[in-house]
Design a protein that fits this description.
With 227 residues, this protein is α+β, with helices and mostly antiparallel strands. It is built from two helices and 14 strands. Among the domains are: 71 residues, PapC, C-terminal domain (Immunoglobulin-like, Sandwich), CATH 2.60.40; 87 residues, Sandwich (Immunoglobulin-like).
């Protein structure tokens, strides 16, 4: 039996086929557009080099890290989503820890290369502890923020506060600063008596990365004093 169809029926049957063709073509154009739009981002990430910090002891792992003069965090946290990716070329590394000499090194970063950076801190023999002390805790969030006392880097907040951490300072007036890129800096003063235990608490508020405190620049640290 022959089945006859009218022109109108043929048009109805052919429409789904045309729709499929148009849909496939549209998807191809969209995919091409997305690939083109993502190309600069992919190209940028594929030329970066990555740093892998290696520290054997707690001293190294809790030390603050500056790259090209800017604080990026403490060594033990700089992995995973906080790993350091840099454009190829030479970069200046400074690692700081209270009571230790600064660890400095010029790093040459290559494209798409994982660069291992072993860090070893050496105790500063000229540092002396005061014979009379007071105890100060700094409870701050985020706890990766850098803590400065009298313009000297003493560590990140996570190792200077909480139930089991504190620092010993000489009695008298001290200026406390808690700073982290992307957050408003916190500043306070404490007047400590001998044997006193005190706590400074703060939650840093979000801010522009351009509002980072000058103390985050390793080149602007004040000279260290021995008390």
């Amino acid at each position: 039996m022959n089945l006859k169809t009218s022109g109108k029926d043929q048009k109805m049957f052919s429409n789904p086929v045309k729709s499929k063709v148009f849909a496939v073509a549209g998807a191809a154009v969209l995919a091409s557009f997305l690939a083109f739009a993502a190309a600069p981002v992919m190209a940028q990430t594929t030329v970066l080099g990555e740093l892998k910090f290696e520290g054997k002891s707690k001293v190294e792992k809790t030390s603050g890290v500056w790259i090209d003069g800017k604080y990026v965090g403490y060594l033990g946290e700089l992995w995973g989503h906080k790993r350091i990716m840099l454009i190829p070329g030479d970069h200046e590394l400074v690692v700081k820890q209270a009571g230790y000499k600064d660890f400095t090194e010029t790093l040459t970063v290559e494209p798409r290369i994982l660069l291992a950076v072993p860090v070893r801190m050496e105790r500063a023999t000229e540092e002396t502890m005061p014979t009379v002390t007071a105890q100060l805790k700094v409870d701050a969030q985020p706890d990766r923020a850098a803590v400065f006392v009298d313009d000297r880097y003493l560590g990140h907040a996570g190792e200077l506060g909480g139930a089991f951490h504190s620092m010993l300072l000489s009695p008298g007036m001290h200026k406390i600063k808690v700073v982290l890129p992307g957050y408003q800096s916190f500043e306070s003063q404490v007047n400590l008596a001998a044997g006193q235990k005190s706590v400074v608490k703060t939650n840093l508020a979000k801010a522009s990365i351009h509002e980072a405190d000058a103390l985050l620049d390793a080149n602007k640290d004040a000279p260290r004093e021995t008390k």
